[in-house]
Amino acid sequence: GIDTTTLQRLDAAHHLHPFNDNAALAKRGTRILTRGEGCYVWDAEGNQLLDAFAGLWCVNVGYGRKELGRVAAHQMDELAYYNSFFQCTTEPTVRLSAKLAELTPHDLNHAFFTNSGSEANDTILRMVRHFWAVQGKPEKFNFISRHDGYHGSTVAGASLGGMKGMHKQGGLPIPGIHHIDPPYWFGDGGEMDEEEYGRVAAKRLEDKILELGPENVAAFIGEPVMGAIGVYIPPRNYWKEIERICRQYDVLLVADEVICGFGRTGNWFAAETFDFRPDVMTLAKGITSGYIPLGAVMFNDRVAEVLATKGGELAHGYTYSGHPVCAAVALENIRILQDEKIIETCRNDTGPYLAEKWKALGEHPLVGEARILGMVGALELVPRKPAREYFPDRGRVGQMCRDFALRSGLILRATNDAMLLSPPLVITKAQVDELAEKTWRALDLTARELGM
Ligand code: PLP
């Protein structure tokens, strides 16, 4: 094989990394990962790392599942590819559509396949506008989403998202997309009780609908738990309120479950955790545990029926929509999640244990808030307690803590100065102990570096 230094040099010379300052990265040198097993990955230098971020919120069944590779190889041998464009399809694609209809809640019975979460969100922008237009309501065109939300990196995905840094590059958002403030309890002061804050945060949607005129609003889209910005866990009643408002003004409700789907919040879908009924749901990541690219949009009966009976030709699709190899891997991934009762174990056993250990990290002088739901959480780092303040030069302290964690063999992500947690769902209690201990140590080293 090629030695690590050569790989790093070639990487710096020829590979632009997403979401990176590539000049800084080239100086620092990338880490080359070579192998994974369960919750661990190894780099080319032989360092073992506990991956408390499941790759990118996605390796739900853990690394090294040979069954998934075997299923992919088998499907490639049988029929490596066919599309669904010309009145054809393949068995795994059909079986996966039916399986998703069974697994997703309520009447989300109709699947459209994409390669990624971004493409799933692109798909809904067009399909939802089309849904209204063919019913004689073309003015129902506007989407509402949240500031700081993340819905992907395509033009529509990044426009629906509310990341200011992304909007700056390339002149986004595209027209017809409006943002409201997210339910960010920590940032909003945290003084109201949960119920009241849930109502206040949801009312921002109603205010925006009334400002635009309900007859002009197509849909609201949101991540049930906002991931990339820092794991914002909304009050328990928030989504019920959002649903009530959407129904009142006949605005479609789209749940972006790209992170939350397939067990992350302790149920198969966060729509169950928060007990609400989306009309449309977007999926990716955990659908294959990241082993192969796949995304999906689930439409409910109402939307699918209008699209089928009035929509004419669905003028949308990808070469790899419903790719049989990806569908076969997704089916096997779902079988593993079901047969091994992985989500039930998270909900009843390892999840509560992780929550206890993670909340205990809130005792650290550097942690202003430790929040967690199921298998997703964050630590908000603060200069002093109990004030809800941020460090000046946001992001520096988070990166410092992330780097200390990495040096001691733990992968956590940092956004601003929040440390984000999203381990493989198969994490054991012993691994939770390791995670908690290494996180505490990284916090200690960070505090010492800051002279706290
Ligand atoms: N939606 C959410 C909530 C996400 O977190 C992501 C990716 O992190 C996406 C959409 C985009 O998915 P992808 O990166 O597969 O395009």
UniProtKB/TrEMBL annotation:
GO terms for molecular function: pyridoxal phosphate binding; transaminase activity. GO terms for cellular component: cytosol. Pfam families: Aminotran_3. Its cofactor is pyridoxal 5'-phosphate. Keywords: Aminotransferase, Pyridoxal phosphate, Transferase. Belongs to the class-III pyridoxal-phosphate-dependent aminotransferase family. This is Aspartate aminotransferase family protein.
